[in-house]
Every structure is written in structure tokens, then in C-alpha cells.
Amino acid sequence: MSHLVYIPQDIEKEGKRYLVEKGYKVKVGSDLSQKIIMEEIKDCDAVLTRSTAVINKEVITAAENLKVIAKYGVGLDNIDIEAATERGIYVTNTPEANANSVAEHVMALILSLSKNLSLADKELRSGNFAIRNQLFGMDLEGKTLGIIGLGRIGRILAKKASKGFDMKVIGYDPYVTACTNSELEIATDLEWVFRNSDVISLHLPLTKTTKGIIGCRELSWMKPSSYFVNASRGGVVKEADLVNALQAGRLLVLE
Prior knowledge:
Blueprint: E1 4-7, H1 13-21, E2 25-28, H2 34-40, E3 46-49, H3 57-62, E4 68-71, H4 81-86, E5 90-92, H5 99-114, H6 117-125, E6 144-148, H7 152-165, E7 168-172, E8 185-187, H8 190-196, E9 199-202, H9 216-220, E10 226-230, H10 239-247, E11 251-254
Parallel strand pairs: 1-2, 1-3, 3-4, 4-5, 6-7, 6-9, 7-8, 9-10, 10-11
């Protein structure tokens, strides 16, 4: 008898085809509401989930046949690991699957900010061809990128920024005291990183200790009009403090 894999939020056809070729049956979810997920998961043996679907205790309880919860990504904050453990359900993730893609995406965001691409595109499409004389971009060469969180993505980003754009890269991670990467300087003072970076990029998991870890104090340390990219979960930044910093014109941000 084939095991049934529930996919609450659809994935690429190659992934579904791989499961079918391995002998599994696939059920793609119709809605991400908890009520629908609890109904659709009842007869499933495994869940392959992304970040949006919440696999909480109620959902896990409803899944009588569930044996595995596989995260199509890295962060596990949308999965109740304790509830899964109580049921003897395995929880897995894919820490290396998207690291390069995320690092490339962050470089794209940094380039968009430093070259005013979004505003220039908007103005150009509205017929304001003189916008090229009103916007001034920033060259990344020689500028400092501060990376908060030196996991796989942070280290890959450091290499791309240093080797590809000749940026100086400094990184902060309380769990990393040394690094063999020649393109990365390890800092032990978070404030120093914020004050000395032209671009700050966050790469932190969302946990009880990191929730709201970046607020008005950290944002106030940044240089005027420096750039802030959050490639982590939104919850690591205090939203109200971020709004205040933006309204005050202290920084430009992409998430």
C-alpha cells in the first residue's frame, strides 16, 4: 500500500513527480486555513510543508496516520516540534536546498536598493525620463556589508559580496567565534557591526530568543540612509520600531 504525502501548499511539478516515481501518492491542499488542513491531513502518512502552512498541535492531533513532517525549507517555526515529538513523528528540514538561491536573492535586493531600481523603474514607466538625473546610486565596491547570522546562507552571501562585488564583509553570530573564510571578518560586538556597515543583512532563525531581537536601539546604530535587508522571518524585527525608523528617513529597507 502506497503512503500518502500531503502537500498543503503546492510545490514544483518536479518534486511531485519525484514522489510519485518513488511510489508515493500525493495530495495537494486546497486551502491553508487550519480547518481545511485538519480535514485534509486525516488520512495522510507524511506532510511536505513550506512556511505558510501552520502545522500546530491541533493539526498534528488530527493526523492519525502521520509519521513524518518534512519542511521544504529551513525554518521550523511553523511546526509544533514538541507536539510531533510526543507522537513520535519525525520532523525534518532541508538546510542546504535553498541556501545559494537565498544568498543570490539577497544580493539582488542589495543591488536594487543601492541602484534605486524600484523607484527608477516606477518613474520611468510613468514617463519621468528625467529621473536618471535625480537619483544617485551607491557603488558597492569598497562598501561594508554587515551580516547578522553566519549560517550557510550568511557565509555564502559573504563570499558573493566579497569576491563578486569587492565589498568588505563583517559578520556577527554569538555561536561563531572564528571562520576560515578569508572574505569574512568576525566581529564580537553587534553594535560595532551596525555602526560600521553600509548594508545590514539579517540571517537569523525565528526562535523564542531571536523574536524581536532587532529594534529601535539596533536601528539607531545604523548610518543615516544605510540599507537594511531582512532575509530572516519578519518576527525577528520589531515592526513598530522599523516603521518609525523608515518614517524618520533613517534607512532604506527590503524584506
